[in-house]
Design a protein that fits this description.
- With 345 residues, this protein is α/β, with parallel strands linked by helices.
- It is built from 13 helices and 8 strands.
- A 6-stranded mixed sheet has the order 1-7-8-4-3-2, with helices on both faces.
- The model has no long low-confidence stretch (mean pLDDT 89).
């Protein structure tokens, strides 16, 4: 891990226990199964679209595992299913957004501490900084964990967010999942210098670049960054170097801009296999554990699929409750008629 982060109180923090390492593996296994299943569900017409995260399980699970959900708040993009799963969000409610049955998902963002899914590239970064600044103004101790990709890092919103957070010492961790591709454009063609973390020095804040395929390294880097922010030292940039093994979305064909051979060579070691080898080497798990984790992941996947398939149609009153801040008299009349008709169905 390459870091310019000053020493923080976590220097003496206890290492992850064998039980925690097994929990991390189980989480990544569940995420892997659900992710690959979601792609299949899109092909089967169960959901209209999905953004896969194959290969990014360690980056998402490791970072979310470091959160204190009694204090902190996570701000995802459209690709953080692994973050949601690690934070304990109901996955049928989460996937309802991909089912297109509700704005932002059917889960409660306040209770779960996970903001609604954000499809606007880099949009959640500004929201995270606003929430973090609110913590400063209100004397809170929470830290915002903002997720975005290497492609989104080139948006002007990211510059504004980092600059504002640095000036105001807002407690926010800018967590960049550098998966090597901004849709079809490789990182080296759209990130000057090849590193998002290196930009942190321009804002006078610490930057960390970590192996995003090592879940323990990601957890430690995020834990330290959160502690740094919580101590009132301002924001931190964490760049997890990983690889998007699949398409940008189910509407994308990665074969148009990279070959399968390039994908195999550049992807590096599989995050799950990496932790599996560590658990076996340390005697923290055996084959029976891995078989059980696999079975649990499959059972969970099937239960979530069943839950998604029984989701009802998109509620018509959404237009009146979410789209308009102030409805016109004509819309009020339309809403009244809709409610009256609904009561007689």
């Amino acid at each position: 891990m390459d870091s310019s982060l000053p020493a923080v109180a976590t220097a003496g923090a206890a290492p992850l226990s064998p039980g925690q390492l097994r929990e991390l593996y189980s989480l990544m296994a569940a995420v892997r199964h659900l992710d690959t299943a979601a792609v299949a569900w899109q092909r089967q017409g169960i959901i209209p679209g999905y953004a896969p995260e194959l290969g990014q399980e360690a980056a998402q699970v490791g970072s979310a595992y470091a959160l204190d959900t009694t204090l902190d708040f996570a701000f995802p993009t459209y690709r953080e299913m692994g973050v949601a799963r690690t934070m304990g969000v109901d996955m049928v409610a989460y996937m309802s957004t991909h089912k297109a049955t509700w704005h932002g998902g059917m889960y409660d963002p306040v209770a779960s501490r996970l903001a609604p899914i954000q499809a606007v590239v880099a949009g959640s970064v500004l929201h995270a900084v606003g929430w973090a600044h609110g913590q400063t103004l209100g004397g809170g101790h929470g830290v915002a964990l903002s997720y975005f990709g290497d492609g989104a890092s080139s948006q002007g919103d990211v510059h504004e967010a980092m600059n504002f957070a640095a000036v105001m010492k807002a407690p926010v961790v800018f967590f960049v999942q550098n998966n090597g591709w901004a849709i079809s454009v490789p990182t080296e063609r759209q990130v000057a210098g090849g590193s998002v973390a290196a930009r942190a020095v321009g804002y006078g804040i610490p930057g960390i670049q970590v192996d995003g395929n090592d879940v323990v390294a990601v957890y430690r880097a995020t834990r330290d960054a959160l502690a740094h922010c919580r101590a009132g030292n301002g924001p931190v940039v964490v760049e997890a170097m990983t690889y998007r093994r699949g398409p940008h979305s189910t509407a994308d064909d990665p074969g148009r801009y990279r070959s399968l051979d390039e994908e195999r060579i550049d992807a590096g070691e599989d995050p799950l296999e990496r932790l599996r080898r560590r658990l076996l080497a340390e005697g923290a798990a055996d084959e029976a554990f891995f078989m059980a984790a696999e079975q649990e992941a499959r059972a969970e996947e099937e239960a979530i699929r069943a839950g998604i398939e029984v989701l009802g149609p998109r509620p018509g009153n959404e237009m009146f409750e979410f789209v308009f801040q102030e409805t016109t008299p004509a819309l009020e009349n339309q809403a009244t008629r809709w409610r009256e008709e609904s009561e007689h169905v």
